[in-house]
């Protein structure tokens, strides 16, 4: 510790007071800085009284309610400040949760369930985000290519955003129901925004695409080879928001408030397509005319184990989970009593 030098006279007393004030100020900054730099706990802005949540998200239709909640002040009403950062895929957000870089992340349910099952990260789901509807998850191709039917994909490359994940598993399920030997397909990883151009160039024979990139691919002439969320995978839950169990235990009020704000926004987005369309150009960077063409799925306003069990079944059927071992209820955050 550096002690202030005391000099005789008025100037010395003034210097002493200044040095003490400076030392106190530095101490205050260091104390607040520790809280602000900790990613494992919700940090509170002492001036505004708001709790900051660092959240990972993607430029997809799935997260429209998140932007709606921010724009309409639903998070602010709950005393929350949401700092967003972009992730390329849901699986990429999970290590950031573990490291404390993110408090909550958007991601697909397969990634969350696998992380929980493998014990790498103790995942706690805090909000549902998106559920498939016909036309929201498509395997697309170029109509003038060698691929004219699903069986033509054998021996060729198909783009998915993450291997052995919801994107790939729904494609595999849909292809198998059509008699395609998926072991003969080379699945390659690619970010969703890059898929339309890759199809156009012929880098891949097909791509598993979500909105708004389905509409972009359509503009380049791509067509639907098959709908991945039809038949056995109809109405499949796609994605949600999750934290670690440690974070929700340390920040139960913040988690409950986030859940409440998202529930309100999800319900509103579900009943107001125009509100979603108006938001899409801002955070996905698509043209307004494209936003009017996108196929929009469902935004569930509740987090329910009964709905998510279909994802568990999909994973079990594809060998991604041992049969009858995973308890989806153990992964769901329940708000403290009095906060429901």
Describe the structure.
Helix 2 packs across helix 10. The strands form two sheets. Strands 1, 2, 3, 4, 5 and 11 form a six-stranded mixed beta sheet that branches. A five-stranded mixed beta sheet has the order 8-7-9-6-10, sandwiched between helices. The chain has 13 helices and eleven strands. It has helices spanning about 10-35, 65-70, 75, 90-100, 110-120, 165-175, 195-200, 215-220, 245-250, 250-270, 275-285, 290, 305-315; strands spanning about 45, 50-55, 80-85, 105-110, 125-130, 135-140, 155-160, 185-190, 205-210, 225, 235-245. Strand 7, helix 6 and strand 8 (about 185-190) form a beta-alpha-beta unit. Mean pLDDT is about 85; it is low at about 1-40. By secondary structure, the protein is an alpha/beta fold. The longest helix is centred in the N-terminal third of the chain and has 29 residues, at about 10-35.
Parts with pLDDT < 50 across at least 5 consecutive residues: 1-41
The top level CATH class name of the largest domain: Alpha Beta
Mean pLDDT: 86
Number of helices: 13
- From the alpha carbons, calculate the radius of gyration and give it in angstroms: 24 Å
Largest sheet: 6 strands, mixed
Strand residue content? 15-25%
User: How many domains would you count in the coordinates?
Assistant: 3
State the gist of this model.
This protein has 340 residues and is α/β, with parallel strands linked by helices. It contains 13 helices and eleven strands.
Can you give keywords for this protein?
340 residues; alpha/beta; D-Maltodextrin-Binding Protein, domain 2; 3 domains; six-stranded mixed β-sheet; 13 helices; 41% helix; globular; disordered N terminus
């Amino acid at each position: 510790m550096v002690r202030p030098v005391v000099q005789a006279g008025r100037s010395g007393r003034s210097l002493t007071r200044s040095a003490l004030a400076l030392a106190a100020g530095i101490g205050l900054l260091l104390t607040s800085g520790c809280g602000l730099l900790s990613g494992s706990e919700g940090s509170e802005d002492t001036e505004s009284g708001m709790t900051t949540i660092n959240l990972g998200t993607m430029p997809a239709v799935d997260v429209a309610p998140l932007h709606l909640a921010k724009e309409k002040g639903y998070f602010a009403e709950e005393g929350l400040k949401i700092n967003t950062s972009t992730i390329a895929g849901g699986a990429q957000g999970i290590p950031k949760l573990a490291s404390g870089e993110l408090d909550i992340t958007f991601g697909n349910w397969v990634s969350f369930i696998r992380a929980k099952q493998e014990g790498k990260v103790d995942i706690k789901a805090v909000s549902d985000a998106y559920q498939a509807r016909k036309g929201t998850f498509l395997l697309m191709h170029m109509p003038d290519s060698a691929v004219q039917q699903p069986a033509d994909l054998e021996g060729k490359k198909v783009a998915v955003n993450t291997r052995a994940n919801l994107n790939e598993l729904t494609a595999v399920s849909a292809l198998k129901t059509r008699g395609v030997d998926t072991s003969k397909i080379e699945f390659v990883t690619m970010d969703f925004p890059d898929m339309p151009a890759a199809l156009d160039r012929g880098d891949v024979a097909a791509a598993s695409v979500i909105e708004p990139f389905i509409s972009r691919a359509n503009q380049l002439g791509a067509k639907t080879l098959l709908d991945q969320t039809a038949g056995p995978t109809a109405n499949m839950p796609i994605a949600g928001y999750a934290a670690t169990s440690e974070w929700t235990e340390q920040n139960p009020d913040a988690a409950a408030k986030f859940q409440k704000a998202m529930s309100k926004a999800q319900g509103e987005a579900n009943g107001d397509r125009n509100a979603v369309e108006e938001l899409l150009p801002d955070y996905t960077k698509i043209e307004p005319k494209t936003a009017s063409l996108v196929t929009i799925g469902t935004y569930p306003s509740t987090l329910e184990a009964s709905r998510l069990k279909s994802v568990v079944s999909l994973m079990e059927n594809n060998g991604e989970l041992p049969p009858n071992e995973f308890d989806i209820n153990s992964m769901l955050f329940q708000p403290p009593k009095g906060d429901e």
